[in-house]
Amino acid sequence: MSKQPFLIAMTFMSIIIGGGFASGQEVLQFFTGYGLIGVAGTLVSGLLFAFLGMQIARMSSSLQARSHKEVLAALFGRRAGLAIDLVLSFFLFGVGVVMLAGSGSIFAQQYGMPPLFGGVLLSVLVVATLCLRVRGIINLISAIMPVLLLLVMTITVYSFFASDASLESLNTASGEFATISDGWPVSHWFIGALLYASFNIAVGFPMLSVIGGLTSDTRQAALGGILGGVGLGVLIFLLNIGLFANLDRLVGVEMPSLMLANALSPAVALAMSLALICMIYSTAVGMFFAFTARFATPETSRFKVLSVIFTAVGLLLSQFGFSALIGTVYPMLGVVGLILILALGYRWHTARREARMRLARSSY
């Protein structure tokens, strides 16, 4: 078998697994907070990731797309595709803001420093990277992904078996997560799972479109999307059960994975905090780069000035808090993702109908 499907799968997973996932906050809000039924939600999201990954990779491969704009144009037409692209860019900026807030939460929870310190530090690093083109740093940070995943899985699996909380107490604790966020109540686990898949697809759509376009074999591309989606489903499932087993200790915690790491060992907690900072940094650079590139050509003076301005604005907005921003920005981004899901589903249905019609004509 070709290595291409596995490369696509790993890239797909790397896009989706950012600071919000590794911190445990995303999974806590969109799955664990619903109680034991949240496990069913992880299965729904996993299936959606597999289907959507297959569709995006296959479409971009058949179009030989060099940019996600080509896929959007094929789905919605040029004008509507441009509108979706602009809205998507705006919310990607919101994800960058969430990453700045996440950095502040790590320094506050792990090191007892003001959240503003972590936000300012990450902002400086992001601006320096965008202005100085420190590409080697980004490559180095991306290499932390396997270490981060190993840490998260080790911590959650250990926490699951070490937990002595009763199922009754855990279900009681889940009642305190009745809504995903203030102002955006999501009272049903299925809607939470659908929103989680949709906002993540919106975030990963641009890069997955480019990666799928690198291969001319549509079947290999589709297989890569499926494998990546299944892998994501497994990771979400494992993290969810680890968090649920300790839910009574996680109410109001900004960085659930970090708290579980502290219970395991101070050294593991230190390693986890550093890995989270690296992952959040990598995600923030990607989001602010994509947003700034909409208004200026990369590596120009205008691009550098705008990157400073946009990051500074993001720092101000990040003071609303990590968990509050995840519960606000991500569901809104999820609406954009839902539009993508509907368009991809319609495209899949249309392609299958046309294939059946061609088969019927050839049989005569």
Structure commentary:
By secondary structure, the chain is mostly helical. It has one domain (4-100, 144-262, 323-363). Helix content is 80%, strand content 0%. Helix 9 (145-162) runs parallel beside helix 12. The protein is globular and about 65 Å long. Residues 179-185 have low confidence and may be disordered. The chain crosses the membrane at residues 34-59, 80-101, 113-132, 139-161, 189-211, 223-247, 267-291, 303-322, 328-348.
Keywords:
single chain; 364 residues; mainly alpha; 16 helices; transmembrane; membrane; YkvI-like; Membrane protein YkvI
Concise synopsis of the structure shown:
This protein has 364 residues and is mostly helical. The protein has helices at residues 4-16, 19-23, 25-30, 38-63, 68-76, 78-111, 115-132, 135-142, 145-162, 167-174, 189-212, 218-244, 256-264, 266-292, 301-317, 322-363.
Write down the overall geometry: globular
How many extended strands? 0
Distance N to C terminus: 36 Å
Overall pLDDT score: 80
Parts with pLDDT < 50 across at least 5 consecutive residues = 179-185
Report the sheet with the most strands, covering strand number, pairing sense and barrel closure: none
